[in-house]
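Table S2 (text version). Query chain:
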Amino acid sequence: MTGPFQILIIAADPQLAPECEAALASLPGEAAVVHRVADARQAVETARNRHPNLAVIEMGRDLARLKAVVADLAAVSPDTLSVAAFRPELFDHEVSESAMLIEALRSGIRDFLRRPVSAVDLGQLVERLSRRDTRGPVRWGKLVSFISNKGGVGKSTLAVNTALGLALRYPERVLLIDTSLQMGVCAAMLDLSPTLTLTDTARERDRLDDLLIRQLATPHASGLHLLAAPADAVEGAEVNDDLISRVLTLSRQAYDYVVVDTFPIFDSVVMSVVDSSDLVYIVLENVVPTLLGATKLLVLLDRIGFPRERQRVVINRYARHSGCLKPMDVALKLDRDVDHVIPYNRGLIAAANLGRPFSMWASRFSTAGRRLSAIVDEVAELSKSRFELNGKSNNRPAPQEAERPA
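Corresponding structure-token output:
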């Protein structure tokens, strides 16, 4: 970081600036330069002239105003990191804290400060920002998730094989996150025994950053990294949707691609995953009970406003047995195109049992292997626009594809 550390405080409440200044005064090192403004117009002018490292924005219930301020700052000073400062009493029984924080993240907010602002919280934020600046611009990787509201459809198998297929092309640049908090299976499918899991992100939340995310991940021989599910339901209770949102944001800074496996129920954790996803793969089988559940899930995605262009429907373990629905029948019943059809393959099941993912050894003549590769290709295509900083390209080229093993 060159020059003095500059902080822009944007607040109608006159107490926010003194809180930040008092917190800064107790931190070691050189004093920061603090600029105080009361409205968006002054904020834009100050940001344009000063290019502050950090903007602390007072957060109220009017998230449209917050979004407008963040967008204006990004336009005139794209390197400025915007964080929101909020009082706990902002959220009452009628206002969901997690929903508002997720909406703020959608607006471009990168982190949060709880008021009154403490020296510990602000110091950790400044430290993370300093480390980020020494490594150059923030890179935003692409995130895809696999969801279903019914277990046993092979969702985890698809997530693992997609992540591993990407890792074979881009070693060390792909992270698989198992957010099935009570019964994650990704580690077993990869024949890994992680000593660190998502529970450790909860226990280290005060110093969590993109570097620590990489340290908590378990490497696989393919070049894939795994952030494993908690060891059991008791540990899983330590992980909530707020933490998941932060883990996903930091993971996108640490990796080119993030693939997320989920629990087969649409709870607040899965909603956080979906909200952060560039693509969501809805996994089902071509049987009526699963199809009825998938129909409800698609309706729910529409109700929460998740764009259809970011949804992909996958028929997994497709079989032509008598009585099974054809892809055309499934599309008609869903009133939605079927994007991918993965045929039933005993090798996929055997691979899951042996901990040797199908993508590592599938023959190029295998229909199932080719269909899985099509999903990997689709995710890889996202990289053409993956390097972004505050919504703007930083002109860094997409990762080069490594030579595939024979």
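Notes on Table S2: Residues 385-406 have pLDDT under 50 and may be disordered. The first helix runs from residue 16 to 25.
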